[in-house]
Write a structure and sequence with these properties.
single chain, alpha/beta, Rossmann fold, 3-stranded antiparallel β-sheet, 18 helices, about 15% strand, binds S-adenosylmethionine
């Protein structure tokens, strides 16, 4: 791609993601099949304005997520479009609905101001409370957020299982996932290692809403139980702790508070796995360096290098051991042990 074309593609990136967002939000991706359907029926069945719906579907087709037939304004799904269906095993629909939805759309406008005044967490500036408090007071956002975390996990769980494929779990009997959301990762770990008995520590609204919880869906409720709680107060005892996309939500001071709390509850030689997008060396482009800006907008947190995680661990009583990566290196699993 030429410099001009790639710059154009970045400048109009938001147009593209908003077009896909509208397709997901209005049910277009879930509705379309590989058999072309005419726009009149699509609009009628999805309760859309036919003229506007045609224009959106034409734009979605230009992006490759649907196909417009040359005759009669008929549309079908493409293989690219399948990944935006709710029921696709690796669905990205949840991620799209959260990250391009109205709450997260609004917070990015604070970015130029934040890099001047150094005050991050645009979510709080925009809504007067942090993201998790907002989620606890807004059930629609909470549902979109939790579904999105499962949608992220559809990618991440496979990567974690790959990264830990040669890990010896035989001496681990209890696993506690802190902030495990709908439990996608925990459930898949319990399903693969059937001697594990575990807990998922979550905030009350997440524990209350079990509609899309993975332990129930996978019939693992007896071995993978939800515990209502707050990681800033107290966590249960376990041989192994897992935290995926947790520490990146919080400042260094807050991360140390969480890690110290886990340390207090953990038995000797307990392990901790921290799953995050890890920032690699300066010259290497990496998704973590973009996700870091989203964390600047949405939270008090950040994406960190291995050296930064090592510092947090040593300041809270944990000894860094190693980092396990899947082939893609998109995420990493940092392993540490309680050193007394
Ligand atoms: C970014 S999400 C990650 C969810 C899940 N680990 C994943 O990767 O899909 C952060 C999770 O932490 C939970 N959480 C936030 N504050 C918490 C707290 N004080 N105690 C326990 N869980 C908390 C949220 O409810 C949310 O599910």
């Amino acid at each position: 791609m030429s410099e001009f074309d790639s710059t154009i593609s970045f400048i109009f990136g938001r147009w593209k993601s908003q077009i896909l967002y509208t397709g997901a939000k209005s049910g277009i991706f879930d509705y379309l099949t590989t058999n072309p359907v005419d726009i009149h029926h699509i609009a009628q069945d999805l309760n859309l304005n036919e003229i506007m719906a045609y224009r959106i579907l034409r734009a979605i087709s230009t992006l490759g997520y649907a196909k417009e037939e040359n005759d009669g304004r008929r549309f079908s799904i493409t293989s690219l479009g399948e990944i935006l269906k709710k029921d696709h095993p690796q669905t990205l629909q949840g991620v799209l609905l959260l990250e391009e939805g109205p709450e997260h759309y609004q917070i990015w406008k604070h970015l130029p101001r934040m890099i001047k005044d150094g005050q991050q967490n645009a979510f709080s500036s925009e809504y007067g409370m942090d993201l998790f408090e907002y989620a606890s007071k807004n059930s629609e956002y909470s549902k979109i957020f939790n579904d999105a975390m499962s949608s992220y996990s559809a990618m991440h769980t496979t990567m974690v299982l790959e990264a830990l494929n040669n890990y010896d779990f035989t001496n681990i009997s209890s696993l506690c996932e802190i902030g495990g959301g709908q439990g996608h990762l925990s459930s898949h770990l319990h399903s693969k290692y059937d001697h594990l008995n575990g807990t998922i520590l979550e905030l009350e609204p997440v524990v209350r809403n079990q509609e899309n919880s993975w332990p129930s869906k996978m019939g693992l409720q007896d071995r993978c139980k939800y515990i209502k709680g707050n990681m800033f107060d107290q966590v249960p005892s376990a041989d192994l702790y897992m935290m995926k996309m947790i520490l990146h939500d919080w400042s260094d001071k807050e991360c140390i508070q969480i890690l110290v709390n886990i340390h207090k509850a953990a038995p000797d030689k307990a392990r901790i796995f921290i799953v995050e997008h890890i920032v690699p060396e300066p010259s290497q482009p990496h998704f973590s360096k973009l996700f870091d800006i989203h964390m600047m907008c949405a939270t008090t947190g950040r994406e960190r290098t291995i050296a930064e995680y090592k510092t947090l661990l040593s300041q809270s009583g944990w000894k860094y051991l190693q980092t396990h990566y899947p082939n893609s290196k998109m995420i990493g699993v940092i392993e540490a042990v309680k050193n007394g």
